[in-house]
Design a protein that fits this description.
mainly alpha
Length: 168
């Protein structure tokens, strides 16, 4: 097993846990608070990340145990869910960069535009660590999706090689 495949397995497990938690949270907020366009979009992108992680587990199993076939719909599902799911990590990276690169003066000005009760709830010294966490999570999901595309292509090439009859 190569380092890249081990990294793929680890990132898939972590992405599955994170996306599962966030998907459950988004679904709960929609069920308890009602329909909200932002929450629905978040649920769709997080759900795509979650489904992509589950499909990646099936791909990993098929790579490790070639005698266990991969369902016919799994490669297409990995491509589609990965393409939709890449929206979430890109948003996380954008939000993380915004939080990390904002200056203290800009932060104070932005906080002053909020209502008084929301101003009291925001702690400016916590925003940079939250930005770093967003960057790490975004990078993790992006890495996982890219690795899944790479190993899917490798699996498909191996299947084509196994399916072509050998000339005698």
């Amino acid at each position: 097993m190569t380092f890249r495949f081990k990294l793929y397995r680890v990132t898939t497990a972590i992405a599955l846990m994170i996306s599962g938690f966030f998907t459950f949270s988004a679904l709960s907020s929609i069920l308890f608070l009602g329909m909200n366009l932002g929450a629905v979009i978040a649920l769709l992108t997080l759900g795509a990340c979650f489904i992509h992680s589950v499909l990646s587990l099936y791909l990993q199993r098929s790579i490790l145990l070639p005698e266990i076939p991969l369902k016919e719909s799994t490669p297409g599902g990995i491509r589609i869910m990965g393409s939709i799911g890449i929206i979430f990590p890109l948003l996380m990276i954008f939000c993380g960069l915004t939080l990390v690169l904002v200056t203290p003066e800009q932060m104070k000005e932005a906080i002053l535009t909020l209502p008084a009760e929301q101003q009291a709830a925001i702690r400016p010294n916590m925003l940079k660590p939250i930005g770093v966490i967003c960057l790490v999570v975004g990078a993790l999901f992006t890495l996982n999706i890219n690795l899944s595309f790479r190993f899917l292509r490798q699996w498909q090439q191996q299947q084509q090689h196994n399916d072509t009859p050998e000339e005698e």
